[in-house]
Design a protein that fits this description.
The protein has 114 residues and is mainly α. The protein has helices at residues 2-12, 14-27, 31-45, 55-68, 75-86, 89-92, 96-108.
């Protein structure tokens, strides 16, 4: 899946590794996802600098794509997708409240202590 390939590439990048290492003492297992969400926030906040398509259009297009290919998604993504779409995570990453909603949604869907 493309998302896994992107995550693998991102996770291997020296800047990403450095960022997660800084957070590991306080966030442990969650340091990677914390950095990932922070990077998503920066990208969403500055979206117009990277794409001529609006962030809203991008998010809607991807939600439709996820739903169309639902059976191809990992079980974890399938489980989180309704909350992701309902709370418009991709669009709302640009807002602090959107990040909090995302983290709260993920917390409800994880078995690890947060």
């Amino acid at each position: 899946m493309l998302h896994r390939q992107i995550d693998t590439s991102t996770d291997a990048h020296p800047n990403f590794k450095s960022s997660t290492k800084r957070l590991h003492a306080n966030y442990g297992h969650y340091s990677g996802i914390t950095v990932d969400i922070f990077y998503d926030h920066i990208l969403a906040k500055n979206w117009k600098d990277y794409s001529s398509q609006s962030l809203s259009e991008f998010a809607d297009k991807n939600y439709r794509l996820f739903q169309k290919n639902f059976k191809r998604l990992t079980t974890q993504i399938q489980y989180m997708l309704p909350n992701m779409v309902q709370n418009n995570w991709l669009y709302n990453y640009q807002f602090i409240d959107g990040i909090l909603d995302t983290l709260n949604g993920m917390n409800r869907h994880t078995k690890r202590k947060s």
